[in-house]
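Now read the record:
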Amino acid sequence: MMLIPTHHFRDIERKPEYLQPEKCIPPPHTSPVGTMWFIRDGCGIACAIVTWFLVLYAEFVVLFVMLIPSRDYVYSIINGIVFNLLAFLALASHCRAMLTDPGAVPKGNATKEFIESLQLKPGQVVYKCPKCCSIKPDRAHHCSVCKRCIRKMDHHCPWVNNCVGENNQKYFVLFTMYIALISLHALIMVGFHFLHCFEEDWTKCSSFSPPTTVILLILLCFEGLLFLIFTSVMFGTQVHSICTDETGIEQLKKEERRWAKKTKWMNMKAVFGHPFSLGWASPFATPDQGKADPYQYVV
């Protein structure tokens, strides 16, 4: 039998009567299938709107300042297709990360009837969250913004107005990757455009006035550099977290590892789906994570 350290943020009990189920209201009726998940948080909604605004601003500058006025049609068409495809995938990934249930545990299910229905064996331990009154699966943590316990919660990201957890980590990784790619692409195009404008007359390299063109390009350059650094770091930390099978919260709290260790490739497939395919890079492909038991108890 594995000894479980008692953490101050968890109630660890062995018998239903010790969980104080009478203090828990019955869980609400299950939402209809297809109900959209959305967190009503003012800060998160504002950050999500800002994210879309910045991507659309980059789209505007790339198209109407650099590509459309260019007389090199092949250059404009190729870069326009690549940039728009990456921007579309980035925004689609953002929507999936924001509107996908990250792995919320049913709220208020720590009732006597539900605990008894689990038919726990002697020595099995269940975790109760005192904040949302839920039976908490192993590796789940409570989010104060979502007001729910989230399975394999990595962190709450205001930029996607959602927690990054078991069900939407793939979309968050894709979002950071595609934002980093369009930021890098935009920076390269800004560099080429500046060289082109220096070699030729500024009035001929853009449909806007020279001062306006310079301001728009500098703002795009600053935005692209900032987002390239930020999203590249986030992408790297997420991939490392997936490969080590240890969430950001688990690393921060240095929690004892109580789950089976798997290979890095198996951990990647657990997040992005089985088997490896182009669907890994698609925000429209829902990963097949198998039929794991949502409630896992430590013996």
Remarks:
- Confidence is low (pLDDT under 50) at residues 1-18, 291-299.
- The first strand starts at residue 11 and ends at 13.
- Residues 63 and 189 are 11 Å apart (CA to CA).
